[in-house]
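Bench notes, bay 3.
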Amino acid sequence: SKLPVGGNFAFTSISGAQAMLFRTKKGVFAYNLKCTHKGCTVGYQDKALLCPCHMSMFDPFNGAKGVSGPAPAPLAKIKVSIVGKNVVEG
């Protein structure tokens, strides 16, 4: 309940992967931050997920699909949901 609509939150998933959670008016969603090109850790800036290694850019509000760069696939989704006042993985 503390994450506002439009907010995001970096976390470590159950699998140990670095991940990013987003909250919109429609709900919550999250992605694994491992780039699908060479496995570098992706960061979030200017409403995009950007890989610092080879500049692949992903759109978190469109299924983390690639916008530019060499990444061959979108970032992996992490299943999350709101249960009561909490966001849970799984």
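Next record in the batch:
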Amino acid sequence: PMQCEYYALEGGSDLVHTVRKIKAGINGGIEIEGLLRSMFDPRNTLAQQVSEQLKRHFGDKVYDTVIPRNVRLAEAPSHGLPALAYDRSSKGAQAYLQLAGEIIERRMAKEK
């Protein structure tokens, strides 16, 4: 997961560099399965720009699903509940369900 903010983008670059070092050294099979844009606010120009940069740089590694900034998602941990148990109908919970479907679809497509 990556917030669509500047420092998260820099951190993502560092993570990719670390994964490459691990792949070259101790685990040749490691790879990033996908990148999830989270806490996304479409009204924020920077968030849109970072999202586009992620898509340009990582291509199909970026999930189509975007997790929005959502109060219900933020409240769930304070109640000791996962988002789906706290408010399954919230936009954030629905986005996570959509992500699960997307991950399943990608895995099934790889198996073919």
